[in-house]
Specification:
alpha/beta, Four Helix Bundle (Hemerythrin (Met), subunit A), two-stranded antiparallel sheet
């Protein structure tokens, strides 16, 4: 796939109807990956250094539970914000929310965790798409370099990116080949390229290899960079160091 754009990258972005399909499928893929894990693999360390595979998956489940229920969302936000003040090196209220999600689900067996991951996806997506319009436009602080965004930034694609990024984390931690298809993973990566380019106002030719990749051009006389599509995701999310024009910590993943 080759995409050329000279004035921004809105043509690369995911619309709301497509986002719903992608969200459902990403939850399915994450749960399927977890269902395949061995006992030892649950304890493997990940690029998110405070989390092993199990803690990461407890976070994914907790986040999905909050997406599925306004009551659970408010519980996590209220109690998690307080907890963030008690956590050493906490830089954002979401640190407390993540920790709360893990602590409150730590009693689950691995089998129970998988079962809940398998069932929560459709409920989480239904909750996200049922959010009323006024609340969808509530401004929230995402953190630098993104800044403030309406809640729909997370509801439509942001939460899906988080699950996708953690599926990447698990496969990287275990040395597993990741399930990747053009219709799903490439669309998520393409959307990230679009926001990444606009966020930094970059002119570039970006050649991303692998099933999730493509060739993306923005502007003219642009520097060129070639790397694996999943490596691109790991760099912009801060899992790997910068490479050429690709900058780390560009998007919240």
């Amino acid at each position: 796939m080759t995409v050329t754009t000279t004035r921004g990258t809105n043509d690369l972005r995911i619309g709301r109807d497509e986002a719903k399909v992608l969200a459902l499928e990403e939850f399915r893929r994450y749960a399927a990956l977890c269902a395949s894990l061995t006992t030892d693999e649950w304890g493997a360390p990940t690029d998110c250094t405070l989390w092993d595979v199990r803690k990461m998956s407890l976070h994914v489940l907790g986040a999905a539970d909050a997406q599925a229920s306004v009551k659970e969302f408010m519980h996590q936000f209220t109690k998690g914000t307080r907890l963030a003040k008690e956590i050493e090196d906490s830089h954002h209220f979401v640190d407390g929310v993540n920790e709360l999600q893990i602590r409150e689900r730590a009693h689950l067996s691995n089998e129970e965790l998988v079962a809940q991951l398998e069932s929560v996806g459709p409920k989480a997506v239904k909750g996200r798409w049922g959010t009323p319009p006024p609340m969808r436009y509530l401004p929230i602080p995402i953190g630098p370099p993104v800044g403030w965004k309406p809640l729909k930034y997370l509801l439509d694609v942001g939460f899906t990116r988080d699950v996708f990024a953690h599926r990447v984390d698990i496969c990287a931690a275990l040395g597993r080949e990741m399930e990747l298809t053009a219709g799903h993973d490439r669309r998520l990566v393409t959307d990230m390229v679009g926001e990444w380019g606009d966020l930094h106002d970059l002119a570039f030719e970006l050649v991303l290899t692998g099933p999730a990749g493509g060739t993306f051009t923005r502007g003219t006389s642009a520097p060129s960079e070639q790397l694996d599509a999943i490596e691109f995701v790991r760099i912009i999310s801060g899992r790997l160091p910068d490479q050429g024009i690709v900058r780390s910590n560009s998007l919240p993943l």
